[in-house]
Structure formats: structure tokens, C-alpha cells
Amino acid sequence: MKERERLRMGMLGPPSIANELQTHVPPCASGLSTKFVDFIKRLNHSFPNILQDPSNQKCGGRKKTVSFSSMPSEKKISSAQDCISFMQAGCELRKVRPNSRIYNRFFTLDTDLQALRWEPSKKDLEKAKLDISAIKEIRLGKNTETFRNNGLADQICEDSAFSILHGENYESLDLVAHSADVANIWVSGLRYLVSRSKQPLDFMEDNQNTPRLMWLKTVFEAADVDGNGIMLEDTSVELIKQLNPTLKESKIRLKFKEIQKSKEKLTTRVTEEEFCEAFCELCTRPEVYFLLVQISKNKEYLDANDLMLFLEAEQGVTHITEDMCLDIIRRYELSEEGRQKGFLAIDGFTQYLLSPECDIFDPEQKKVSQDMTQPLSHYYINASHNTYLIEDQFRGPADINGYVRALKMGCRSLELDVSDGSDNEPILCNRNNMALHIPFRSVIEVISKFAFVASEYPLILCLGNHCSLPQQKVMAQQMKKVFGDKLYTEAPLPSESYLPSPEKLKRMIIVKGKKLPSDSDLSEGEVTDEDEEVEASGRASADHNGEQRHAWLCRELSDLVSICKSVQYRDFELSMKSQNYWEICSFSETEASRIANEYPEDFVNYNKKFLSRIYPSAMRIDSSNLNPQDFWNCGCQIVAMNFQTPGPMMDLHTGWFLQNGGCGYVLRPSIMRDEVSYFSANTKGIVPGVSPLALHIKIISGQNFPKPKGACAKGDVIDPYVCIEIHGIPADCSEQRTKTVQQNSDNPIFDETFEFQVNLPELAMIRFVVLDDDYIGDEFIGQYTIPFECLQPGYRHVPLRSFVGDIMEHVTLFVHIAITNRSGGGKAQKRSLSVRMGKKVREYTMLRNIGLKTIDDVFKIAVQPLREAIDMRENMQVGKILNSLEWMGIATETIPSLTTLNDENHDSSLLHAFCQFPWVSPLQSASFNMIQESRFLIEMADTVQEKIVQCQKAGMEFHEELHNLGAKEGLKGRKLNKATESFAWNITVLKGQGDLLKNAKNEAIENMKQTQLACLSCGLSKSPSSGAEAKGKRSLEAIEEKESSEENGRL
């Protein structure tokens, strides 16, 4: 079934960014610490209903988004002048009134750029206008009382609405454009005019000398050897391709013809003006241009301060300095003037956004960043199945390149199926096609050479032994000789309980296979044979009447097996009692799926101590792949994949092991490692002790999409759309898709936002898939899969991969990523304050009844502290303030610098700041409440957490005796298992809620400190002039001193 047939239109999520943060933070605030600015960003994502983003709401049942292919004018918007020209030509806008009336009016901008006019109007012509100088603010979206009170507001698309606030009383002129792109043009143009209102008459003249045009003229003059101001079209085309290698030659030539045709001339020579015009139209991405204007305070370039705020607030870059920003400008700005003066124009900014520095993958995860000292069973391990094959498993030949490919991809578990060869030389071959084989010695030599090229952590060789005793001895001799000291043969210590760690086993090769009893001196003996092929063919039951199959094993080969001894799985109860930690079970896909469905909790608990290997069903004769996520959810460490078969399942596998430096080992979530914890692979709700997160993804645009390779249609035209898949535990799995952009492969604009709740982020992955909606034969364009933990926030380019997994040059998705906590990630649809409060229900994680009074009485003590902990964390959220702002119809950008204040509220400083703005005095009460909640959490968190920890410790005292106590109370079988499961659930809840409360306290302390810094930086905190202010200042100092003394005490 095609991927497009599996996907359905999804609900649209909240907007992606706080667009106006940079516009309204004064220069003096640029020195704020990173944590404070990061908090601002999270807050703005958490409360999308007051942001100026065009993605907030659905328009009817289907979201109408920006599509620059439907512009009224064929000319692409590439500068402020283009916006002004469009506004001067005028267009029809709908004027919204509070009385539920909407009027169609034709709006234009005066030629002198002094006023905005509309007609028809009952007013005098001189009154049906708005002076640019009277404009205070321009808001994008339905963010005024007029929109909120209009009965038809629900029928108005959020993307197309904008408001102009003017006059001393901040009256609003509320307008709706016929499309989101037109609204963007008016908003950008008006903001530019307002910022330049002191010298509007010089606008057109200044625009001819922008840094970009000056740079282009310099480039043209350098290429114009004759100095005549003209050059051959071929030379111009080549020059533009040098500046932008992604452009197609045919598209550049077509643009020159369009420009010359508009001037009624036809020649093969290009003037300087035509060259500049063609470059600007071809190389300006509208979505990047509008972003630059927004974050640069309506300039057409970024200075160091603009860039610093952008990196901190949107990109989440920490410890950024002005010198670092200037270095970025010097590396990416194309003009010499820009590099010298320290500004980044549109072309340099575009290059920066496309650079590895703005990649979606967290650079910290490109190196080993996880704890590698845990037992081997606590990691997911990159594993290959039938490694020697490069085609299907039915007839494919054995090829040594299969091992080279897998090892270079960071694979840490290889499979070797060894059979008898001629001349007493063991061979590797596909047993369905033994004609084409490779010598065993050649394989292990290649393994030895490439074993630790991609990763220095241990390599496991899964030995499929089909050899006679003489050739087994040859195998053992060859492995000893080739691998030497790298071969791990140390006997496991019975005194230990867990396997050694990857750190301890660095650069070691571990053999997995059968082993003779250690207490026997026999040089050879019989062992059980759990061959994959036996299970597949059914010979074990059909030919042997259910009897276990045996094979002969020599001592020399047996001695090479140490901590990965293969044993047969019976059941979990028997395994937990008698299986040794160095023994490993292999499960077929079919058997593992059955166990995962019937005993999901037991499977997770089993894998805390023992290694499990899952291999694909033998029915997959085409070597297709299983879904590894199904078994990762159960904690299975070694899920073997057919590396030779690309597709969605291999995409998940490859994407998952990109993290932790691609070393082939990924640490499992703590809830799947802790000895006493509860986790079910089939959970369809909130995971106990884990705080869910809201993932906001805005798909902005695509770049240079190729035609699907298998498409049968002629021409290069495609109709792309983007699917977003979330993979993880069942509660997290989700799919949503964008609209289709018709006939645009170069730069399709999607501009759609989606929200996903992720309950267990450590196990979640995001897969971006681009497909062709008008396909014949093949729809696949590209994909990229990334672990949730590796996402970088902000504006990012996603490098798309081909069907076989190769990175496609210059083929990207432009997205915006934001991650908030669940209470902060609201839906885009706005409601009144009372409705929102009525809809919000606080959820408490409940403890379970075990059925043993002694233990239940201990856990009952924790019920009240748990409730208090959740209340304190929830009450600290700043939603009360922002909801109050929404209720009053005031967006944060209305008040200069309020964006930097309303998120983190120190009492005296913030209330003093609010007093300077009389129209927000009603907010003082809400602000004070917020501050009080934060202070209450800081003061009470340790006490409540101590109660929770004490209950957890008291409960753990019963852990060893749980079964005995249950037996005394008459619990057995399923009831006893249920009691054990409930006990683990309660311990998990207590541990998780205690950790969350501790983190909340640290965040509250940091917020209070940063608020004081914000007030000082913005000049809004004056010397205390009242007792209340002095008391507030002393309170903050006391908190800082208390925290400092606690830290010193711990040290």
C-alpha cells in the first residue's frame, strides 16, 4: 500500500514562534542570559493564542496557508520595495467591525507613503484614511477585541487576518486579506514604513542603494571585463549559477527572457539592472525574507544584536556573545561591506540557515554523549541480520561488502552463517544458493579491519555454526589468529548480577554462540540447536516429533564464547529464576510479537537484566524488514535488520542509531532500566513518572525537490506534500500531513503547523516524508528520520535522504521546531478565559492498590504529598498571566519590553515595571499571584519532595519480601503478579514525581533570578522607594542566599 494511502489529513497545531520577541526587546536586553531568553521562547510556544503567527487556526475544515505561487502579481516578493509597490497598487481587503459586520473595501498606500486610504466609504475622503505616523503597532492574526467579539470570527482564517493599532488610545483597524500571503505583504510593508516614518520620502532612493544591490553591482562589474555595463547572457547565467548552485540553467534563462520581454527588448546581452533583478527574483526565498524583516526590527539585514537575540530566543543557542555573532556574519555574509560593517543581508542569512550550524540534528548527539558505564543489557544495539547478503535471502549471493557496509554504518552485531567448505576451509554462504560463497577467513579479516572504524564499542558476532567438528576447530584457530587480543574470552563472574558495560568492553569482539558445560573436560559434546532456519522450516516439530534438535560442538570453539552464551527461551518465570546474566535468548519475529502482546510488562522486566535478540520472520523471503520500534518498546536490545533492504523500517533503524555519536549503542530510558519500575510496551496513555511534552512542528517550505525516481509521468512537474510521522510507544504514534502545493518543486510553501503530544520522548522518533500527490508509478521524493532527543529547536533545515538512505544534495525542508510541556502546549483555537478555564482539567497520577494492607498503608501516606507536588508545579505555570492578557485583549507586544517581563515574575521588580504602564494595572494582581506561587514552590518543594522520597524508601523495604507477604495473604498466580505490577507502578510514580518537583524548583529559582536581571537590563527596576519594594528585593536576595548555602552544604 502506498504511503499516501495510509495518511489522513491531520489537525493543525499551534503556531511555531514568538515572531515579535526581537522587535520589541530593547537593545539593552540583548545581554540577557540564555536561560531567560530560552524561557521566553518556551512561554510563547506554550501560549500560542496571543502570538502573531499566521498558523494559529483552521479556516473552516481546512487550513488556508501562505502559497506564494498564488500571488496576485507574478513578481515574487523579494524586498521591502516589492511590498510597498504592491500596497501602492492596492487590493481589496475586508474591514471587520465589532458589531459582526464585515465590509469589502479597496485599500491603497499613498504615493508619498504618508497615509493608508480605503474606498468606498461614507466618510469624507480625507477621513477615510490613516496616517502612517499614527500607527502604533501592526498585529498578524486575530489578536484584538474586535476579532474576538465578532460573531463571524470563527469563519475568518487566522492566517489572513491582521490589525493596525493607531492613535493614543490604541484603536484598531481590523482587516482580512483574501489570502495569507497578501496579509504578510501588508504587515511587512506597514512595519517597514512605521520603522522608517521619520524619513519616508527617502525610501525609494535608499532602496536603490541597499547592501544587497551594492554587492550585486560589485559582482557584475567584476565579471564585466569590457566595462560596458553589459555582458553575454551565457556569462550572466554562469555567474548566477556560481552564486547559487541550486538553480537550474533553464530557469535562469527563462527569467532573463521574462525580464527582457517586459521591457520589449530581445537580445542575448544582459544589463547590470537586469542581472540584479533576475538574481533577486530567483534567489530570494519569500519565507526567509519575511523572517529576516521580522527579527531585524523591519530592516533588510541583521546586525550583531539582532542575530544574538535570534540565536538565543529562537535557535536555543547558549552562551552566545556578540563576537560569536560577528564571526557568523564574517563567514556567511557575501558582501565585503557587510562583513566590514557587521551586518547579514538576505543572501548571507539564507546561506547561514542552510549551513550545518542550522541543521535540525543536535550537534551534541553527533558525539558519544550518553553514559556508557551501564550494563550491556541497558542499551539498544545496532544489529544486522544476514549480514553477508546484499540481495534477498532466498536466492541472493553472499558478498563480503555486506560486512563493510554494515560496519561503516555503526553496526555492532553481525551475523555469520558458517558452513563446511572444500579443502577444510569454512565458508559463508546463503544456504539456498551455495554456489556463490566467501571464505570464512576473508570475512573475519575484513571484520577485524573495519570493526572499530565507526565505533570503538564492543562488536558482537552472532555465530551460526553449521560446520563439522574438524572445520569448527579451523574456525576457532582462525578467529584467535586474526582477532588476537581483541577477542573477549574472559569467563563471567558468578558473583556479578549484570553484564559488563560498553565502556569496559571497548574495542573487544564478543562471540555469541553455543557453549559446552564448563564443568566438563570433554573435547566435544552435544548442544541444543536453535537454528533460525529450523524454526522457519518447521523441521524441529515435523521431523523430530517435537523433540529438541541437537548438534555437536568442539571445545575450541566453545571456549571463544563467554558473556553471550545462546540458550533457548522457555518462559519468563523460569528465566527470571534460573537464567544466568551472561546467557542470551534469540526470538523469531513471530514469537517475539506474541510475547510482546501477551506479556508486555514481563518482557520489559526480563530485558532489564538479559539480552534479547530478535530476527525477522523466515517468511520474509524478499528480505523485507520488521518494525524495530515494536521490539524497542519492549526493551529488546538486539533487533536484527536486513541492511540490504531500504524502506520505512530501515529508515527508522538508521535514524535511531544516528544518536549518541552513531556509536551503535543507545541507552534505554531509565523507566526501562530501573530494577523496580513499571512500564508496559502497550501503554496507550501517560507513562507514570514521566512528564509528557508537546511537540510543535511548522512545515514552512521545501527546496529543490526532485521528481520521484520511479515516476512514469513525463516532465519534471510535481505536486509535493509533507507527511509527519511520530513513532514510539502506542500512545505517541501519530501521522499528519500538509496540504498539496501544485506544480512547484523548487520552493513550495506549506506554512502549516502541527502539534503532537509525546508521552515518552526518549523512545520517540520523527519521520518527515515528502511525497508527490500527482504520481504515476512512484510517489516517494525523500525522507528524514530523527530521534526526538536529537531535535534542535528553532528554524532548521531538514536534509532529505533518498529511498536508499543517501543524503540528496540541496534537497531540504525548512521547518520550525518547538517543544513545550503539556500544560503549555495549547491548541490554536482561541476561546474566552472562562471557557478555557472550564475546559482545563488537572490530571493527578494515582497510586494503585496492591492488596496488602501493610504496604498499602505506606503508599497512602504519599497520596497528599503527590497531590501537593502536582499542584505546585501546575500553579507555577505562567498561564494565568497570559490568559489574563488574552482576556483583556492585550498581546504581549503591545507593551514595550513586556515580552521580557511577563514570563518570569519577581514581585517587586515586575510590579514596579507594570506600574509604568497604567493600562495594564489590572494585571498586577495576576502577576503577584504568579510570583507567590513560584516562591511557595521554592520554599515548600524540599519538604514535599522529602515526604515523597521517604514513602519511596519505605515502600522499597518491602521489595524483597513482596512475594512472601503476598503468599501469606493468600495471593498467588495472577493476583500476585498484579500486586507486583502495582508495587512497581507506585515506586515509578513516586520516583518520577519527586524528580519533576526537584526540576520545577530549580526552574522557579532560575526564573526569579532572570526576572531581576531582565528588569535591570531593561531599565525597569529602580531603586526601591517603598517598603514593599525593599521587602521584595530582600526576598529575592534571601532565595539566592538560601540556594547558595544549600549548594555549599552539598559540596
UniProtKB/TrEMBL annotation:
<dbReference type="InterPro" id="IPR017946">
    <property type="entry name" value="PLC-like_Pdiesterase_TIM-brl"/>
</dbReference>
<keyword id="KW-0963">Cytoplasm</keyword>
<dbReference type="InterPro" id="IPR015359">
    <property type="entry name" value="PLC_EF-hand-like"/>
</dbReference>
<feature type="compositionally biased region" description="Basic and acidic residues">
    <location>
        <begin position="1030"/>
        <end position="1051"/>
    </location>
</feature>
<dbReference type="InterPro" id="IPR001849">
    <property type="entry name" value="PH_domain"/>
</dbReference>
<feature type="domain" description="PI-PLC Y-box">
    <location>
        <begin position="557"/>
        <end position="673"/>
    </location>
</feature>
<keyword id="KW-0597">Phosphoprotein</keyword>
<dbReference type="GO" id="GO:0032228">
    <property type="term" value="P:regulation of synaptic transmission, GABAergic"/>
</dbReference>
<keyword id="KW-0807">Transducer</keyword>
<dbReference type="GO" id="GO:0048015">
    <property type="term" value="P:phosphatidylinositol-mediated signaling"/>
</dbReference>
<dbReference type="GO" id="GO:0051209">
    <property type="term" value="P:release of sequestered calcium ion into cytosol"/>
</dbReference>
<dbReference type="InterPro" id="IPR001192">
    <property type="entry name" value="PI-PLC_fam"/>
</dbReference>
<keyword id="KW-0443">Lipid metabolism</keyword>
<dbReference type="InterPro" id="IPR000909">
    <property type="entry name" value="PLipase_C_PInositol-sp_X_dom"/>
</dbReference>
<keyword id="KW-0378">Hydrolase</keyword>
<dbReference type="InterPro" id="IPR000008">
    <property type="entry name" value="C2_dom"/>
</dbReference>
<dbReference type="Pfam" id="PF00387">
    <property type="entry name" value="PI-PLC-Y"/>
</dbReference>
<dbReference type="GO" id="GO:0004435">
    <property type="term" value="F:phosphatidylinositol-4,5-bisphosphate phospholipase C activity"/>
</dbReference>
<dbReference type="GO" id="GO:0007214">
    <property type="term" value="P:gamma-aminobutyric acid signaling pathway"/>
</dbReference>
<dbReference type="InterPro" id="IPR011993">
    <property type="entry name" value="PH-like_dom_sf"/>
</dbReference>
<feature type="domain" description="PH">
    <location>
        <begin position="85"/>
        <end position="195"/>
    </location>
</feature>
<feature type="domain" description="C2">
    <location>
        <begin position="673"/>
        <end position="802"/>
    </location>
</feature>
<feature type="region of interest" description="Disordered">
    <location>
        <begin position="1021"/>
        <end position="1051"/>
    </location>
</feature>
<dbReference type="Pfam" id="PF09279">
    <property type="entry name" value="EF-hand_like"/>
</dbReference>
<dbReference type="InterPro" id="IPR035892">
    <property type="entry name" value="C2_domain_sf"/>
</dbReference>
<dbReference type="Pfam" id="PF00388">
    <property type="entry name" value="PI-PLC-X"/>
</dbReference>
<dbReference type="GO" id="GO:0120163">
    <property type="term" value="P:negative regulation of cold-induced thermogenesis"/>
</dbReference>
<dbReference type="InterPro" id="IPR011992">
    <property type="entry name" value="EF-hand-dom_pair"/>
</dbReference>
<dbReference type="GO" id="GO:0016042">
    <property type="term" value="P:lipid catabolic process"/>
</dbReference>
<dbReference type="InterPro" id="IPR001711">
    <property type="entry name" value="PLipase_C_Pinositol-sp_Y"/>
</dbReference>
<dbReference type="GO" id="GO:0005737">
    <property type="term" value="C:cytoplasm"/>
</dbReference>
<protein>
    <recommendedName>
        <fullName>Phosphoinositide phospholipase C</fullName>
        <ecNumber>3.1.4.11</ecNumber>
    </recommendedName>
</protein>
<keyword id="KW-0442">Lipid degradation</keyword>
<feature type="region of interest" description="Disordered">
    <location>
        <begin position="517"/>
        <end position="543"/>
    </location>
</feature>
<dbReference type="Pfam" id="PF16457">
    <property type="entry name" value="PH_12"/>
</dbReference>
<dbReference type="GO" id="GO:0046488">
    <property type="term" value="P:phosphatidylinositol metabolic process"/>
</dbReference>
<dbReference type="Pfam" id="PF00168">
    <property type="entry name" value="C2"/>
</dbReference>
<feature type="compositionally biased region" description="Acidic residues">
    <location>
        <begin position="521"/>
        <end position="535"/>
    </location>
</feature>
